[in-house]
Amino acid sequence: MRLKISLLKEPKHQELVSCVGWTTAEELYSCSDDHQIVKWNLLTGETSQIVKLPDDIYPIDLHWFPKSLGIKKQTQAEIFVLTSSDGKFHLISKLGRVEKSMDAHSGAVLAGRWNYEGTALVTVGEDGQIKIWSKTGMLRSTLAHQGTPVYSVAWGPDSEKVLYTAGKQLIIKPLQPNAKILQWKAHDGIILKVDWNSVNDLILSAGEDCKYKWSYALEKPNTGSIFNIAWSIDGTQIAGACGNGHVVFAHVVEQRWEWKNFQVTLTKRRTMQVRNVLNDAVDLLEFRDRVIKASLNYAHLVVSTSLQCYVFSTKNWNTPLIFDLKEGTVSLILQAERHFLLVDGGGIYLYSYEGRFLSSPKFPGMRTDILNAQTVSLSNDTIAIKDKADEKIIFLFEASTGKPMGDGKFLSHKNEVLEIALDQKGLTNDRKIAFIDKNRDLYITSVKRFGKEEQIIKLGTMVHTLAWSDTCNILCGLQDTRFTVWYYPNTVYVDRDILPKTLYERDASEFSKNPHIVSFVGNQVTIRRADGSLVHISISPYPAILHEYVSSSKWEDAVRLCRFVKEQTMWACLAAMAVANQDMTTAEIAYAAIGEIDKVQYINSIKNLPSKESKMAHILMFSGNIQEAEIVLLQAGLVYQAIQININLYNWERALELAVKYKTHVDTVLAYRQKFLETFGKQETNKRYLQYAEGLQIDWEKIKAKIEMEITKERERSSGSQPTKSTGLKH
């Protein structure tokens, strides 16, 4: 990826250009020490003078009123703030009329910025003051007073905090009085420029120490010093305010997208090159308008231009499906196997690969301008979106309708959520979402939520980035200094004890600091390091084959594969998969292979149970789902068995509650309770047990006979129901 520079032969300004600002992706305003404001149209290449400012106004900074948020009257978006060296800021209309000029600072006003909602303006100056103004230009408060000039300022993504410079220091100050201030040394020289990205929450700063972290490309145009730069709304073009009166433009080219054997490169603004690395075949894709965003996945290339969306199949690059966009500035494209998602300033839109509009999920306070691939996730049946107003909340929508998932309740976590990801394969009822919270803990939970509170289970700690495989439900993440793969994350729902045996880990120090997982395709994981370079890791292909066998119920093939590979991780995954699918014969083989003898014995005891209801209940107990096991038994009329599992687990309160409710086996519960207390030499203190034990003589012979009768009854009922096979269990 690099920038392609374009520069006019002659400058349009006579003096240095101090600031630039985009109104749309194709229109820019520039201000200069020659007092002129010039409008640039990048589609036609025309320039026009908007206004000549009074000779005593020397512009320093320019910022347009935000267009897409909180605005009912479009005219409000047609205004910008201009700060100047005379201590004033000016509200100027798009036509060049100065609507208002306000005395703001002693000395030059060095920067001015609207917040994201357009409800407030912050200015900073040579006098070291940071001031907050209303959108009409009335002073609200003086936020801070520094002893040195404040050169730059930026709003936090939530418009509740302000970031500003103080010599070599950066300071974040909340608007609320008495709130904690964050301050740190950021450079070895005076900091001149700062910005805060609302999408990824990163801060960028520049100072006189001339330090930078990395470089994708370097261009040295003949323009003198560059005093100000501004990215276009769609993030594909940049403009620079130059010391010799020029305005320099550059657009991003040579962006690359890869999927399996295809590599797509943006060679020009309106041209892409597709290369098939298997046969070296090359296709050129021409577009009517400038390419803004693209995504290549699931055998489809989706490209958005300034006006249209193109959908190409990797089987045929010649005849794309084309449809017009509601708004040109697409900021995000996400793909799943069956459909894709577009995000623009107006909303979120789901389309099929045939170009059919499917749904547009909405929720209160939705801000599409800050959504990214870490805060939105898409699968074949679900859309997940992290809330910005309350970052502990994840909204879940049905992909086909855009309506809230399940009973309409959102997913709520105890801490702020940083990154979310839906698994891509399997049935809707089994859909899982993994997410990382602000403590860098990784959690997994079910997407389908009906009434009962679904468990949110921790999978790992110190996880910085994650991704699901596109071919099966394998999860990978960068965990502190390790690259970790969870071959079967659902193990936490089945047998948490063997989860460590289902992991693959390797050292991740080669990826340097702050790496990010870009994709997980097949058995290849692509990681972007902090310097922008890509690193590819291949993991074992066998777990994916195991997933395929299990999803097709090919248990014999799965066992044969594990015997061939001879790895503990494979056997552990198969054990958990078999229990999850209630194939206890395979589970017994797999648990024996990893040396879990106690579990093999328990599985054997399950296989000898007289009824399938009892078997299912004990399988649920094996997975830790005690309540569900009890429900299965009670629905099948096996009240004694439901009481007995509570006795076995020492759930004495529940055991007695069931016995009293169903008026059976109260003496059995009291007998086992008495035996339990005698073993530990304790006296009964529970009031309910004392109440029911009063005047009752324990007769073990009678109790054993009753238990034997219950078992016989269950066995007879089970054998009697075999000819007329049950249609299924209510579960």
UniProtKB/TrEMBL annotation:
Keyword Lipoprotein: no
WD repeat residue intervals: 102-134
Bias-annotated ranges (Polar residues): 719-731
Coiled coil region boundaries: none
Region (Disordered): 712-731
Keyword Chaperone: no
Subcellular location: Cell projection, Cilium
GO terms, biological process: cilium assembly
Span of domain IFT80 second beta-propeller: 254-542
Keywords on record: Cell projection, Cilium, WD repeat
Main location, first listed in the record: other
Stored PANTHER family: INTRAFLAGELLAR TRANSPORT PROTEIN 80 HOMOLOG, OUTER SEGMENT 5
Designated name of the protein: Intraflagellar transport 80
Species of the source: Capra hircus
